[in-house]
Design brief:
This protein has 357 residues and is an alpha+beta fold. The chain is built from 9 helices and 10 strands. Strand 4 and strand 5 form a beta hairpin. Helix 3 crosses helix 6, helix 4 runs parallel beside helix 7 and helix 5 packs across helix 7. 38% of the residues are buried.
Length: 357
């Protein structure tokens, strides 16, 4: 399998620790030489220890994925949450230091108000290359929280409710809108990239098209014929246990890279276990008890769990296919594209069709 190159030319090929340190130095943050690359498939993220004893996280955005306007909307949302004292990690404002003409800062600039997005020249990529785009946030050490008891789910529900109590006021103009049409777009992407095993393509495509239709119909049935415009909130967009961090008895929600407009359930269902059963029912009840301390919840959205799961299944496959030229992806998903993979995907989609019926 070899999909076409979906990366912006240059990509991350020239991103080195030296580049990271130079970018931080340009905004007055001098690293002490200790730098650690953190886990991230989509972007490149580094923890940098500073000479003053502090630490920051530098996120270099994948070229071509988001526009400046989309990134700055994410930043504005997290800053708004921070002002409301919701425990999130908001981006730090930056200001370029003065430099001599022709020095290493040539072409660098800071975008947004209060200046949370640094454009840093990708000097190694050659003339005309798009700049690297960087944001900084405080480093917050902590631990993965335990989310098992009803009390833990209630606490988690309160956190998401607080996020949505801010997100309900205002709208994104540039960020993604999470609706049923994205399922069909994901199927089209996978077919265009020709990643499905040819012998399995007819069966997989039949299941994928039927699943995408069921997702779109569920959104219309549950949220309304307008696709749920009235139900759309500003969301975290990828709220799951891996994006939680506990520090000093406070639960933090981190990494708003997938912030989007969508129904409230999108920020809730990924915390639940399994498809059905008593355990999931109790978890959801506890989660909503905490959530409704801050936000009302439309119980009709409980029927969106399986459509949202199906949408995530299709979009995840399309995401891997689009990123396959990035060496990190074949290493992380070695079975992707094999006959067994597409046979399993077909079975999963057929099962999801049944669950959405």
């Amino acid at each position: 399998m070899s999909p076409p190159d979906a990366q912006t030319p240059g990509g991350f090929r020239h991103l080195t620790p030296q580049t990271v340190l130079a970018a931080l130095d340009a905004v007055g943050l001098r690293g002490d030489g200790r730098i650690l690359q953190l886990n991230s498939y989509e972007n490149r993220v580094w923890r940098v220890m500073l000479e003053d004893g502090g630490a920051v996280v530098a996120k270099f955005y994948r070229p071509g994925r988001w526009s400046d306007e989309q990134i700055l909307e994410e930043h504005a949302f997290t800053l708004e949450l921070a002002v409301a004292e919701v425990p999130v990690l908001a981006p730090l404002p930056m200001q370029l230091l003065a430099a001599e003409p022709g020095a290493w800062t040539a072409g660098a600039r800071v975008a947004g108000a209060p200046g949370t997005l640094l454009h840093w020249p990708d000097a190694e990529a050659g003339p005309g290359a798009a700049p690297l785009r960087v944001s900084l946030s405080p480093w917050l050490g902590g631990r993965d929280p335990e989310v098992e008891s009803p009390q833990a789910f209630e606490r988690l529900g309160r956190l998401i409710g607080r996020v949505h109590a801010v997100g309900v006021h205002g709208r994104f103009a540039h960020r993604l809108r999470l609706d049923g049409t994205l399922a069909r777009r994901a199927v089209d992407t996978l077919i265009t990239l020709e990643v499905v095993e040819p012998g399995l393509l007819p069966r997989w495509e039949s299941a994928a098209r039927a699943a995408a239709d069921a997702v779109e119909q569920a959104f219309e049935r549950i949220l309304g014929s307008d696709g749920g415009t009235a139900a759309m909130l500003r969301l975290h967009g990828d709220a799951h246990r891996g994006n939680l961090l506990e520090r000093d008895l406070t639960l933090h929600l981190v990494d708003f890279d997938d912030a989007c407009s969508g129904p409230a359930m999108q920020d809730l269902w990924l915390f639940l276990d399994g498809h059905e059963g008593e355990s999931r029912r109790r978890q959801l009840e506890a989660l909503l008890r905490g959530y409704e301390d801050f936000m009302p919840f439309d119980d009709a959205q409980c029927a969106l769990i399986e459509p949202l799961r199906t949408l995530r299944l299709l979009r995840h496959s399309a995401w891997i296919a689009e990123r396959w030229v990035d060496p990190a992806f074949p290493l992380a998903f070695p079975g992707f594209g094999s006959p067994n993979h597409w046979a399993d995907q077909t079975t999963l989609l057929q099962e999801q069709i049944g669950r959405m019926a």
